[in-house]
């Protein structure tokens, strides 16, 4: 038996659908025998800062590359600023700034020279304003003082900053940043956070992928959680944290027995320092309490606990793994 753990936050009222700056439907990418991305339906509302969260190999970079038209999907559709890819790429891409892995900077040119070369290919940048745009972008990412140095000698963090600067050369409608804080020190991480906050204030839409859940929680308005190539949760951050994201903390002297009772009832739970933590996925507090009482467990206290994004992420990904474990048990039992 498998149950979907996908969580999609629904808006409270059914007002007009938000304008989307990027939209994917049924996106799938297969490399040989590896399914990198599968059935990804992603909505990036205008003005949103959407955080793409997922462990290593969950498909964030592949999804981002497909959204930017850098990788052709095996199946599915991408719409960027209302333009279907690949046909609408020329119309959409000048309005989209991107920092993706391995930007092709020249090792023997300085940061400034590299950025000027990139700027020369920006269709939205007038030749007369090119130099100033480069200086502004360098300043914005904190690279002005090292701009004369050769790219070859840059640290990973400096390379990231230069990549970010190239995304910021002109005012964009959408900025896509793949792991922008990768290799940055805490000061650099704060700067990236400030840049994202500035973009948000200017109503520029942003897609940012990261492992740093606290960063996403601090900077994003929306979140999409990826796990093994699929989106397991998506929506506005506030709605996601409210919708089914709580746990029930149970205090009982019979916690080991209680764990067994809950497991037989297929309710996901684990012992923690605060008590028995029961995940409210596909179950409700009354159902949990009923199972415990029927199982002869002494429940001393039960209280709802709201969870942070980190908890939500761990819960979604762990729940899927736990289900897979249960499915394996089912298979063994059926086969026995
Ligand atoms: N060009 C490729 N050829 C073969 N396999 C690939 C290729 N690109 C990605 N993959 C595989 O697809 C899966 C998803 O990778 P992807 O880089 O999209 O994940 P990610 O979430 O961005 O991971 P990370 O945080 O480590 O960058 C992984 O199993 C990866 O090994």
Automatic annotation (TrEMBL):
Pfam families per the UniProt record, alphabetical: ABC_tran
Domain ABC transporter as annotated: residue spans: 22-253
UniProt GO molecular function: ATP binding; ATP hydrolysis activity
Entry keywords, A to Z: ATP-binding, Nucleotide-binding, Transport
InterPro entries: AAA+_ATPase, ABC_transporter-like_ATP-bd, ABC_transporter-like_CS, P-loop_NTPase
Protein's recorded name: ABC-type transporter
Family note: Belongs to the ABC transporter superfamily.
